[in-house]
Amino acid sequence: MPTEHTIILDSRDEAVLLFGPRDQFLRMMREALGVRLIAHGDTLFIQGTEAQVEQAIRVYQQLRGLLRQQNKLTAEDVRVVLEVVQHNPAAGGSSEALAEAGGRYLRPRTDGQGRYIRAMRENDMVLCVGPAGTGKTYLAVGMAVSLLRQGQIKKIVLVRPAVEAGERLGFLPGDIVAKVNPYLRPLFDALHDMMEPDQVRRYMDNDIVEIVPLAFMRGRTLNNAAIILDEGQNASIPQMKMFLTRMGESSKIIVTGDVTQVDLPRQTRSGLIDAVHRLRDIPGLAVVYLDEHDIVRHPLVQAVVKAYEETDQKPRRGT
Q1: Pairwise CA distance, residues 165 & 261, whole Å
Q2: CA distance 196 to 237
Q3: At what angle do helices 75-87 and 50-70 cross, to 10 degrees?
Q4: Angle between helices 237-244 and 271-279 (to 10 degrees)
Q5: Which residue among 100, 120, 288, 315 is least enclosed by CB atoms within 10 Å?
Q6: Which 3 state secondary structure label does DSSP give 223?
């Protein structure tokens, strides 16, 4: 039975960017989804079957989010979003499944996560920006474990900056290993969700899996490896350059971070914010943005993130 839906856009300017030059993006949508799209000013009318209209709505939600983050859209953006939505009928289809963990496959639970997984598969370097709870680190570790199990890489290197979020590293007890361990704990947690503890220990003992502070990466070149930098917003610009240039043959680099949670000194610019703007047009490198719609933790996390975004009117450090 035919279904109709109306989308009211924020402005004519948004409509022009969303529909593409000479309505190119509208034509791509019609051909891919089989829907009827009628644009009138800042209003878009969608007609088709219930499934077709539901997919079109999801595509436009994703594209509007990308437009807010990038201030522009490309035909490649539209193509990727269309592919992800079509291959993930319920925002969690199996086409983008990752490594098996405890008898279960890791699957994207939102369209944004689907775009993220596809970007990691298709690019050797990925920068993923998004708030807490969107699965940035978890899916990156899942991708690394999947590549290791498939024999596409021989080593996983998980990296994190040891930057204080209100505390000072020197006041923590123990030697340097004990001091940095709290900063690396989230990576251990994600890894243990993918593998049995005994296997993790064997891999670490055999140097197949390595978890290190960012400062320990200087001077290295890593071949046949998946290298993940978590909390990348807390790397300075020189540190980010140092990390990205560790990449060797047949390797993949993934950087994750939340640019609203920069813990660097006020005068230090975030290397992740800089890299997103400096490197975004390099072929083979993808920048993926996740937002509150991709939060998959407790529902309260989404509400908390939204509340802070709505009330925080101060300029963010590092921007």
Answers
A1: 9
A2: 36
A3: 140
A4: 60
A5: 315
A6: coil
CA–CA distance, 148 with 209 (Å, rounded to integer) = 10
Return the structure tokens found at 66: 């990308």
100: tokens are 């098996």
Strand partners, 37: 46
Task: Please identify which residue in the block is written with the tokens 């799209």.
Answer: 37
Q: What's the one-letter identity of residue 131?
A: P
Q: Walk along the chain (319 residues) and give the pLDDT tens digit of each residue.
A: 678 899 888 888 888 999 999 899 999 989 999 999 998 888 899 999 988 888 898 888 888 887 877 788 888 888 888 877 776 655 444 445 565 554 445 677 788 888 899 899 999 999 999 988 888 998 999 999 989 888 899 999 999 887 644 334 454 455 555 556 666 777 778 888 888 888 888 998 999 999 888 888 999 999 999 999 999 999 999 999 999 999 999 999 999 999 988 988 888 999 999 999 999 889 999 999 998 888 876 667 667 777 877 766 455 555 4
DSSP state letters, 124-161: SEEEEE--TTS-HHHHHHHHHHHHHHTTS-SEEEEEE-
Q: Are 46 and 36 in contact (CB under 8 A)?
A: yes
Q: Are 32 and 24 in contact (CB under 8 A)?
A: no
Output the six-digit token pair for 41: 């000013």
Look at the chain and count its residues. Answer: 319
Q: Return the structure tokens found at 89.
A: 């009928």
Hey, what are 180's tokens?
């940095």
Q: Is there a contact between 246 and 220 (Cβ–Cβ < 8 Å)?
A: yes
- The two tokens of residue 292 are 């509150």
> How many Å apart are CA 182 and CA 160, to the nearest integer?
11
